[in-house]
Amino acid sequence: xxRSAGLILALSIALSAPAHAQTKDSLVVDxxxxxxxxxxxxxxxxxxxxxxxxxxxxxxxxxxxGKIVPQVATAWRYTNDTTxxxxxxxxxxxxxxxxxxxxxxxxxxxxxxTPEFKSPQLxxxxxxxxxxxxxxxxVTLHTKTPYPALLAQLVKLSIxxxxxxxxxGDTAFNQQVIGSGPFKLKSWQRGVQTNLEANDxxxxxxxxxxxxxxxxxxxxxxxxxxxxxxRADLTRGLTPDDAVAMKSERxxxxxxxxxxxxxxxxxxxxxGPTKDVRVRQAIAMAIDRDTLINALQQGYAKPxxxxxxxxxxxxxxxxxAWPFDPARARALIKSAGAEGATVPFLTSPVYDRRLNxxxxxxxxxxxxxxxxxxxxxxxxxxxxxxxxxxxxxMSQGRWSCACQDADGVIFPLFRSGSAWSKFTNATFDAEVDxxxxxxxxxxxxxxxxxxxxxxxxxxxxxxxFQDEAIYLMKPNxxxxxxxxxxxxxxxxxxxx
Amino acid sequence: MGQLSSHLASRLGQALLASxxxxxxxxxxxxxxxxxxxxxxxxxxxxxxxxxxxxxxGFDRPLGLQFLSYLGDLARFDLxxxxxxxxxxxxxxxxxxxxxxxLAAGALVVALGIGIPAGIAMALWRGSLLERALSGFVLAGQxxxxxxxxxxxxxxxxxxxxxxxxxxxxxxxxLVMPSIALGAVTMSSFARxxxxxxxxxxxxxxxxxxxxxxxxxxxxxxxxxxxxxAIPVVTIAALEVGNLLAGAVIxxxxxxxxxxxxxxxxxxxxxxxxxxxxVVLFVSLVYVLTxxxxxxxxxxxxxxxxxxx
Lengths: 496, 309
Prior knowledge:
The structure holds two protein chains of two kinds.
Chain A: H1 2-15, E1 26-31, H2 46-52, E2 60-62, E3 68-70, E4 73-80, E5 83-88, H3 102-113, H4 122-125, E6 128-135, E7 138-143, H5 150-154, H6 162-168, H7 170-175, E8 183-189, E9 193-198, E10 211-216, H8 220-228, E11 234-236, H9 240-247, E12 253-267, H10 277-286, H11 289-296, E13 301-303, H12 326-335, E14 342-347, H13 353-365, E15 369-374, H14 377-384, E16 394-399, H15 410-414, H16 426-436, H17 441-458, E17 461-473, E18 477-478, E19 493-494
Parallel strand pairs in A: 1-10, 1-11, 14-15
Antiparallel strand pairs in A: 2-3, 4-5, 5-7, 6-7, 8-9, 9-10, 11-17, 12-16, 12-17, 13-17, 18-19
Helix pairs in contact in A: 10-12, 16-17
Chain B: H1 2-32, H2 37-40, H3 47-57, H4 63-75, H5 89-124, H6 129-143, H7 146-160, H8 176-202, H9 205-212, H10 217-254, H11 260-269, H12 273-301, H13 303-308
């Protein structure tokens, strides 16, 4: 029975038309993975949102410069520190023709913040304690405490149609989503591809592409081959080495953008040889940032002096990294009595192996013995988020909060009590707490400045570089990738 | 006939027991190395938020309890819901099966279509230049790892020559390269096995008798040798199905072929337990059942085995 079903399928796929790239009004995108869920309130992984965010509008969005600008909400104002009022557009239609109303906005907020819905994204929105329709085209949100990252989080809130979701239920909605965005879901073959078609009635104007196809192609080399043969027009997730190789490829264009993702080294301040601040400072001076950027990243990275990127609010420019100074590092390690000490480095295959080995070499040069332990990603996370004794003395990471705010970076990484933090400092805690409790940007900057001073001296982590997202595309595709790695096809077009 | 059905029943029982054992091992190994909660939450979630989600997903329950409730669902043929995709596991796995079946069939066509004639030729023209050329070919098929030969095929036939699509599953031509990549190793096994079996049989007295009756060597091979040489080859074929399923994991990823193998990788990486378990269940059943089928096939090929039963 199964065998005959297979034959029928094999025959039917043989007969269906192949998806050729390069028709003027279509776009074919190769993504490393398939969409996990079409429902925008369940998954926030890059492959999923690269697709579904083209189907939905968000309450707010960011312009190419990274500034938060209106989308479904036209304007907003705080009535007090914990209450914010949004004016909602009244000319937006969902793909089924129904009007997007303030009720839909409130429903979208309430659904994702209901614990029983089990959204993994809950932590991004759980500061919102109430949402209500407060006027014919107005929505009011209430937060637990003053919450400066609220607007940055709402950039990720897709507005879903209340009536439709309630009618068909969550499971059916996930299969056949309806949004108000520039593209409609035409078909979704799990594991294979997703086909979108233009929403000609889109309120911001008709999209350039009539159809968009997102294909799931897990192997990097295969994605490159697809681009080279014209089977796909655009792909993301290139390694710097791929980018260098593809630069000489005629008929293709490499485009990169500095993202909000920061590459950093974690240094355990609570356990092992790195408990001694002198050892941590010595490690900071043993790391040759420029070599890492030039040799491993092929220049596709910008050095940072702190564990944050300039794409984030809270970035301070006047705190400098420890200089690369192996001699001083060696002396400091000697004075700490840590010569030859073993520094366990915990990592997983997700992270660049070469960076681990480069750091190992650099620490070896100053008299530390770094041992690398590779475990699978879930085990790595379990140990890294576990007790200080099990998380190793060091590890590397690439952190993005998808909120472009220091609060989403140094708070979880270094605030005592946070799962990632292996560092305790009461003054630091007070500064980051204060920075998240006020909406005043000047005050917040002052708090972050002090917080970064402490991080510089105490070295519970070492900022390495601002990561770049690298895309490969047809040379006539016009698109400016953004720091938040959004993937809005509406902003892309063919040059003539 | 009664003997045959009791034989069949006992083999089926063993098959189910083996599948259950595999499933149990996978269930516990997957869970002992960490649950998916940490992969699901965004970076920066607090300990409370992580624990809350873990509780909602039921991963804070004792392992034994989780296992019992899983078995309970399984007994009702309920494979559960995927944590990551929030869709029924049965549907997710069933959608992928036809692709893997098509790929395995393609690979078998390559393996049988090339391997058996090559094996026969190597036996018949033993020591010739042809045999040496063919054994080089067979050796290459066996030694090239598929993740590498796959990329080479793509570069040659997809990028340089432009004859075949580089990836995907949207046409029959897209099946060609993955079938070759996957079928290569199996092809080598068939060629070697066929060569040995045919060589053995060529020395039998019935071949001499056939030649004495005036049949040519090829006629003797076609009429008598092949049938006798088929028995060891059928055994290999059954075992090779297991190899094909294992190889599919890599080949499907390289060629973006959306079958069970690719699903296995994805669901293991995302710790989508129920999907992994369903894939394992399916693969172990297929493996055990093909071995059973091979067992029954001997009887069809060789009357002596039929008589013995």
